[in-house]
Amino acid sequence: MKRPALLSAMAAIVLTGCAGVAIDENYRAVQHFAQTQAGSEVRWLRSDEERASMTAEVDRLLERPLSMDDAVRIALGYSPAFQVLLAEAASASAEATQSARMPNPVFSFERLLRSGGGERELDIGRTLSVSLLDLLLLPARLERAEFRQQQTRLQASSALLSTVTEVRQTWIDAVAARQIARYREEVASAAGATAELARRMQAAGNFSRLQRAREQALSAESVAAVVRARQNAAAMREALVRRLGLAPTQALALKLPDRLPELPKAPMDEATAGKALLDERLDLRIARAELDRRAKDLGLTRVTSVVNGLHVSGISNSETGQPTQKGFEIELPLPLFDFGDATRSGGQARYLAAFNRTVQVARDAGSQVRTTYDGYRSAHDLARHYRDEIVPLRQNILEESVLQYNGMLIGIFDLLAESRAQIASVVQAIEAERDFWRADAALRASLLGQPITPLVLQASEAPAAAGGGH
What we know:
Blueprint: H1 2-15, H2 19-38, H3 48-61, H4 68-77, H5 80-99, E1 106-116, E2 119-131, H6 132-136, H7 138-203, H8 209-244, H9 248-253, H10 270-274, H11 277-280, H12 282-304, E3 311-319, E4 322-331, H13 341-406, H14 412-447
Antiparallel strand pairs: 1-2, 2-3, 3-4
Helix pairs in contact: 2-5, 2-7, 4-7, 5-7, 7-8, 7-12, 7-14, 12-13, 13-14
């Protein structure tokens, strides 16, 4: 009888020092997930020296055009927003550890003085009480706390995956917006030169006022497009700055690549996309952990709903002129008014909710991956189609139109229409590449259990058709 009680007491004592250990274990689990699934490293900055070291590393990364992988590296090791996620995970881990600890024993002291007939009597009572039920249920509390630690690790990994996906997509948007802005600037520069040539040709009597006005209109529209593209590029750049948590001086030092990465030679095949679906998805693992916890809680509720308290107290009373009284007291609530049926019914309902939630998550997983993969393949096919078919065709049409215009076979209006169509096709090609890389990031997140809004390919505005008059 004494040995199990001693072991339980020793376990309770050990629990007082394991909060830091649990936090470190959870942090290492998140680090491992980041390295294996995101290909990056997590940094938890807990001292001024660590923050200074990471700041210097970020400054070195910003000395060159920032790649997507470096952007993820900065976000996971420097961004204050992600540091908040790590700190909140540590707080949740500490709360889980605290939930497994027994309440402290309660000591009460009583001193009573009685006077009368010239005599004084002193009564002193001392009581030390502990919850015997909490001691008996200690193994169940430890197991429940471990479930909470597991959930904390999975939820932290899910938050990390969400951060990685958002940073990747924001980087893609920023680079694509910059690429479009640079192309718009080149178009505006060429249109400006053409407008100046039209002005000189009109002065020499070779162009009419209408022909010159059309060239100037194209130049003016190109300048307006540059203004819009520059503003969009600046907004996307600042969105990336916020995602990375850069300081003002670091934001000024940020440099982006001139263009998006090249499309892969071959897209990811569907078999590869779905092979680890049920084993690796975080949402399924979180749902299963919650179901296991509810099952354990249900078994515990069946006991505690009837007997929800059992306290044992050691008593020592001293009275003037009397021998010391020693003994013990047991306190046990009697289930006369509350038989625990409502508590048990609530526990069963929560378990059924968790069970059906797990089933629904499992059934949704396949559909989400199929939808995301379909968007990925569509975006890949569309981007290749623009790169290999539409843009080269539009360029050939424009070149032939220039030859026909020089031969006076078509008019300036036809040439301007083909020029606008060629410009639109290049911009749409860049946007198609952007959509593909966004879909690629979304697919990788979906395979690991991070639901992402599926890509919807928008119909682009049709290029202006060439007119027949000249």
